[in-house]
Write the structure tokens for this entry.
Amino acid sequence: MTDWDLMRTRHSVRQYLDLPLPPEALEELTALVGECNRAGGLHIQLVQNEEKAFSGLIARYGRFSGVRNYFALVGKKGPSLEEKCGYYGEKLVLRAQALGLNTCWVAGSYSRVPDAYEIADGEKLVAVIAVGIGAASGRPHRSKAPAAVSNVSDDSPEWFRRGVEAALLAPTAMNQQNFRFTFDGEKLRAEAGLGFYTKLDLGIVKYHFELGAGKGRVRWLFR
Ligand SMILES: Cc1cc2nc3c(=O)[nH]c(=O)nc-3n(C[C@H](O)[C@H](O)[C@H](O)COP(=O)(O)O)c2cc1C
């Protein structure tokens, strides 16, 4: 599967089969969590066989069922924490997709289970990502047009157009797609709109943009 296949076939899945993660997938995801934590200075944890976070009213109201594994996106409080969690969280999401698993980003409709993961002093839990074997594979979301989220034009370079296209395939909170990419011929910018979870969304769409633009073409830096 190419990166494009992964981005195109990933959709949020809220209903899961009551099965543990396959051992090979678990091994690979655990290794990737370690890599992401080292690269981003984060404290992401893969929580397994924990059903409380998604068994409360709020999760059932959100139509979640069978969730027993999730990534807890934890990191040191700071100005770029949300964006970094978005970026590295989406890296985990697409790897899970490559391993035949399904996922759903969840910032609101879950319960906190403090003894299921570690949050050290000065750290914070930003969101979780449900992961497992989905009962179905989800459906494509409605999307804004490239021109609504960027300054793309007929003169834009191909890598910029492809980056924006990839960003529009990314999950965003409430499917708000409230971000903007601009390229003025020299400088590339990515900005979050105002609103809930837009910094988290920004990290997610930046990861997609990087993949869409082509390997090594764009590399975002986080402060
Ligand atoms: C940061 C973030 C937070 C989200 N929080 C929730 C949530 O609390 N509950 C929920 O059901 N879906 C949540 N979602 C999933 C979005 O609704 C979903 O990604 C969006 O509708 C686009 O659909 P897709 O992921 O299938 O492409 C969240 C997504 C993101 C990126």
